[in-house]
């Protein structure tokens, strides 16, 4: 975001780097992530109010360890080093870092030993989260110790005059109970940030940015039916009105009645131009006899592109393609080892911009998922839609294991609908990050009435997560499981057994394919 106060986070490879940005934004200050080896000119162009150095897996004294290209500590900008960032401060300021005599992982009680602005308001014996094998054995020049733990005599340091601080613990993680306060002290008291970053301020800025970029040109938006593309379309329509044309491909692999709900939301609720393309025959034909999951993904992705391309043939005046790309998608390429090649291969309508010679319009490139949901609420999108669980691009195509048929799709749609209905009735939907049903290529014997059955097995899955990178299986109450199982088996011909998946990620993935 231009013309807004920002905190710059330099990434040294920590698994928690995204959490730093999220926590800083939660206290109302914009933060963005860049690689540790950012060029000085780029940093000056960003004009940050403060810099946070992330943790990382390296030892700062090792050959090849990541170090910035320039002296971050002589820029006159406040700096906070976290874990590896603390050790970088010490290493570059004539301190000493060595392998710790006793490594520290997990909860630790932090004692504040010196009055200072970073730890102001933090309780003595505050619970913080440690994850380090190295520690400071000698203080850097001009610094003082401001906190310690039982195993780390130097747990936090400060050069108050230069506004350079370092902490051994991770204030960004959930288990650091007062960690958010530490980050708030840094960005508000030490960096002097006063701007408020929230959904309302984002919307105002984004609308102006969209108008400035697009001018009087037309925009096409491929609506997947998910939260991200839907909120993006509503925001863009608010900015440019009828210059936006939305296209939704009904693959036949959506949840029950989902394409109809999307049409009604856009046409009846928002009066936004939307074209629904029935692609059932294309998708079903292409998937016939295919059971390999990666091949199914490629077939589904190509079908989306071909149908979308065909639907835009008469829209030659369109110059922009809108997508709901999020910040985590963007910063997958920010790595201490250089750009990654793991960006999602099927994101919205991936592959179209080059083929169609369209410019990309991605208003959420700087937002996390929870921020997009809040923007959606501010734009008047109904709560039932804003809070809906994530749904994969290939849809039910990767939730029907093995070969796909119209009969199997209908069976799974009905089972999934019953499952979501029951967890909603039980008041559990909002506690769960993602819940869905899977149709397995496994048949088993059952008895219904006086008849023997030989039908499919349905697996149901529910996980809790923040961003999908890791996930824990949800402890579904037995009475709810019983109700779900009973309804699916009694109401859907084709399923006679229901099982509950209790695999976390890792070692499993959230989706089965």
From the 3D coordinates, which CATH architecture of the largest domain would you assign? 3-Layer(aba) Sandwich
The largest β sheet comes out as: 9 strands, mixed
- Structural domains: how many: 3
Oligomeric nature of the chains: single chain
In short:
With 513 residues, the protein is α/β, with parallel strands linked by helices.
Describe this structure in words.
This protein is an alpha/beta fold and 513 residues long. It folds into three domains: 6-190, Rossmann fold; 199-386, Rossmann fold (3-Layer(aba) Sandwich), CATH 3.40.50.620; 406-501, GMP Synthetase, Chain A, domain 3, CATH 3.30.300. Helices cover 32% and strands 25% of the residues. It has 15 helices and 18 strands. The protein has helices at residues 17-26, 40-46, 84-92, 179-190, 199-214, 227-240, 258-269, 280-287, 293-311, 327-331, 352-356, 369-378, 383-386, 406-425, 478-491; strands at residues 6-11, 30-35, 50-53, 79-82, 96-112, 126-138, 144-148, 156-159, 164-167, 218-223, 244-250, 274-278, 318-322, 359-361, 434-448, 451-464, 472-473, 495-501. It has a nine-stranded mixed β-sheet, with helices on both faces. A five-stranded parallel β-sheet has the order 12-11-10-13-14, with helices on both faces. Helix 7 links the parallel strand 11 and strand 12 (274-278). The longest helix is centred in the C-terminal third of the chain and has 20 residues, at 406-425. The two termini are 36 Å apart.
């Amino acid at each position: 975001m231009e013309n807004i106060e920002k905190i710059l986070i330099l990434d040294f490879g920590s698994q928690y780097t995204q959490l730093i940005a999220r926590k800083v934004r939660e206290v109302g200050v914009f933060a963005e992530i860049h690689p540790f080896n950012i060029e000085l000119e780029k940093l000056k162009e960003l004009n940050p109010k403060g810099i946070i150095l992330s943790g990382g897996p390296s030892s700062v004294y090792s050959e090849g360890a990541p170090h910035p290209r320039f002296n971050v500590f002589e820029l006159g900008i406040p700096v906070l080093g976290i874990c590896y960032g603390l050790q970088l401060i010490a290493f570059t300021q004539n301190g000493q870092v060595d392998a710790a005599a006793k490594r520290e992982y997990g909860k630790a009680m932090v004692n504040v030993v010196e009055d200072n602005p970073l730890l102001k308001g933090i309780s003595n014996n505050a619970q913080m989260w440690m994850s380090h094998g190295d520690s400071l054995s000698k203080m850097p020049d001009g610094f003082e110790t401001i906190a310690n733990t039982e195993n780390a005599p130097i747990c936090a340091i400060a050069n108050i005059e230069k506004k350079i601080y370092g902490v051994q613990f991770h204030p960004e993680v959930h288990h650091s109970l007062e960690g958010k306060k530490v980050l708030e002290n840094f960005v508000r008291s030490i960096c002097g940030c006063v701007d408020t970053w929230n959904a309302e301020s984002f919307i105002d800025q984004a609308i102006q940015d969209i108008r400035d970029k697009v001018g009087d040109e037309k925009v096409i938006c491929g609506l997947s039916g998910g939260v991200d593309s839907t909120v993006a379309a509503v925001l863009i329509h608010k900015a440019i009105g009828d210059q936006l044309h939305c296209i939704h491909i009904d693959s036949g692999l959506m949840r029950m009645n989902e394409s109809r709900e999307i049409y009604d939301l856009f046409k009846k609720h928002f009066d936004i131009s939307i074209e629904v393309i029935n692609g059932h025959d294309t998708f079903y034909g292409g998937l016939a006899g295919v059971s390999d999951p990666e091949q199914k993904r490629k077939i589904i992705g190509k079908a989306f592109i071909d149908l979308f391309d065909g639907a835009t043939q008469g829209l030659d005046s369109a110059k922009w393609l809108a997508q709901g790309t999020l910040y985590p998608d963007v910063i997958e390429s920010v790595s201490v080892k250089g750009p990654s090649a793991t960006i999602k291969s099927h994101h919205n309508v991936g592959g179209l911009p080059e083929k169609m010679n369209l410019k990309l319009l991605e208003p959420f490139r700087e937002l996390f998922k929870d921020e997009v949901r809040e923007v959606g609420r501010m734009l008047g999108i109904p709560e039932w839609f804003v809070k809906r669980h994530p749904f994969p691009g290939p849809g039910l195509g990767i939730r029907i294991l093995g070969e796909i048929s119209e009969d199997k799709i209908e069976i799974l749609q009905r089972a999934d609908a019953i499952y979501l209905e029951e967890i909603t009735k039980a008041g559990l939907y909002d506690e769960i990050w993602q819940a869905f049903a899977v149709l397995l290529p496994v048949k088993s014997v059952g008895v219904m009435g006086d008849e023997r059955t030989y039908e499919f097995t349905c697996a149901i899955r529910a996980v809790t997560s923040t961003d999908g990178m890791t996930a824990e299986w949800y402890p579904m109450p037995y009475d709810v499981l019983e109700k779900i199982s009973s309804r699916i088996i009694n109401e859907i011909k084709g399923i006679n057994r229901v099982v509950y998946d209790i695999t976390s990620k890792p070692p499993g993935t959230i989706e089965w394919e």
